[in-house]
Automatic annotation (TrEMBL):
SUPFAM superfamilies: Winged helix' DNA-binding domain. It holds the Pfam family HTH_1. Gene3D superfamilies: Winged helix-like DNA-binding domain superfamily/Winged helix DNA-binding domain. This is LysR family transcriptional regulator. It comes from the Bacteria. The lineage of its organism: Bacteria, Bacillati, Actinomycetota, Coriobacteriia, Eggerthellales. It comes from Adlercreutzia wanghongyangiae.
């Protein structure tokens, strides 16, 4: 059992729109892009920190916005981007829920393997 105690349980949260036919969701990648926009003030800078092409980041955000029916970013051309009020709310909720799920997942894993 000693080796099992060194393992970690991972839980991945996604936020979807059940009414949408799209499979795009707000998950870890979109959350990381949004955090980068919050920290760096642009989607381009956020994409660069993730070693992702800006065009791919743009497509991911647009697909997610379309699927959720919510605008996540306000774009100001050469001046960068900011999160919308809804984008901030979704990101903050996502991060809080993800933290709680991760902690609970690890607690449950430890309980089951001990």
């Amino acid at each position: 059992m000693g080796q099992l105690e060194t393992l970690a349980a991972g839980v991945r949260l996604t936020i979807t729109n059940p009414a949408s036919e799209s499979t795009s969701a707000f998950g870890p990648g979109v959350a990381k892009l949004c955090l980068g926009v919050r920290d760096h003030g642009s989607l381009n800078a956020s994409a660069k920190t993730m070693r992702m092409a800006y065009s791919k980041a743009w497509r991911i955000i647009k697909d997610t916005e379309s699927s959720l029916g919510v605008q996540l970013l306000l774009r100001d051309g050469a001046h960068g981007s900011t999160l919308t009020e809804e984008g901030n709310l979704i990101l903050d909720a996502y991060l809080a829920i993800q933290d709680q799920l991760s902690a609970e997942g690890q607690r449950l894993f430890s309980e089951y393997v001990s």
